[in-house]
Amino acid sequence: MRLRDALRGKIPKELLPLVPSSFDIVGSRGRAVAILELEEPLLPYAKVIAEELMRIHRSVVAVYRKLGGRSGEFRLRELELVAGEPVTEVVHKEHGYVLKLDVTKVYFSPREATERQRVASKVAPGERVMVMFAGVGPFAIAIAKAQPLVERVIAIEINPVAYSYMVENIKLNKLEGKVVPVLGDVREKAPEFYGCCTRVVMPLPKGAYAFLDHAVKCLSGKGVIHFYYWGAEGEAFQQGFELVRRAAEQQGCSAQLLEARVVSPYAPRVYKVAIDAYVECARRG
Ligand SMILES: C[S@@+](CC[C@H](N)C(=O)[O-])C[C@H]1O[C@@H](n2cnc3c(N)ncnc32)[C@H](O)[C@@H]1O
């Protein structure tokens, strides 16, 4: 049953259209938390809404409301407990792997599972993949699980809490040695892997373009860059690819667009897009 339908008769009728039609559930069947956005007029009914959500989704033990957008280098947002126990650490399950994380201390979006699978499905045996901005490890782990013959996945993350969870998640998924966690700033750590990779994943729509030079240099002469970007409707694909093409050219390389797709809406008429580009560097080939 949809939350909005379940709330009929429990909140004023005119507020029903404001009830969110989607929200995030992070965790597993045993224990999960829900995170939702509530518009101002719904705030007096926040507890009723949260309790109804917990009644529909039995695994949810805590409901949090977003207090704003993501901010800062770690891409975190403030959450307020609306109902349930003050649980923040959960084990999320998706596509045959688990991810332990604290929803208040790290970035994680269950909505991006399909995108992770899309990227993971492209990886061929023997590849050496770099995941920049790795968070608690969802892309790196998805890749290593989907392609057990991947040679190595290097995963760089700057938030020490996210990094610690990534280390634990690598163990939980028995991927030690396959996924190599690196704590630090991509600017400082990526040079250790210049010329080493067949593929670079860049899941930081806010600002990944500033790291494209490192991504190109990490490729071993040629390879694929998965670049994420926020852009306006009708412009995002071209702008995103143009950034990759320019970064490649600055290194004496060429870029060819393989695929461009919308990952999710970000704001009215603004989308998070994925740009997959094949980059080839004649001089280093
Ligand atoms: C949008 S989140 C993506 C996390 C993860 N890849 C995922 O999909 O859940 C971006 C991550 O990049 C990290 N980050 C931001 N700037 C960074 C930098 N300069 N070097 C390394 N990590 C960085 C943040 O701490 C955050 O965990």
Structural features, described:
It is a single chain. By secondary structure, the chain is an alpha/beta fold. The protein has two domains: 3-87, GMP Synthetase, Chain A, domain 3 (2-Layer Sandwich); 107-281, 3-Layer(aba) Sandwich (Rossmann fold), CATH 3.40.50. It has helices at residues 3-6, 46-56, 113-120, 138-146, 160-172, 186-189, 212-218, 236-250; strands at residues 24-27, 32-36, 60-66, 79-84, 89-94, 97-102, 128-131, 152-157, 179-183, 197-202, 219-232, 253-267, 270-281. The strands form three sheets. A seven-stranded mixed sheet has the order 9-8-7-10-11-13-12. Strands 1-2-3-4 form a four-stranded mixed sheet. It has a two-stranded antiparallel sheet with strand order 5-6. The longest helix is centred in the last third of the chain and has 15 residues, at 236-250. It starts with a helix and ends with a strand. The relative contact order is 0.09. Residues 73-75, 107-108, 112, 133-135, 138-139, 156-159, 162, 185-187, 203-204 line the site of S-adenosylmethionine.
Feature tags:
about 280 residues, alpha/beta, GMP Synthetase, Chain A, domain 3, Rossmann fold, 2 domains, 7-stranded mixed sheet, 8 helices, globular, binds S-adenosylmethionine
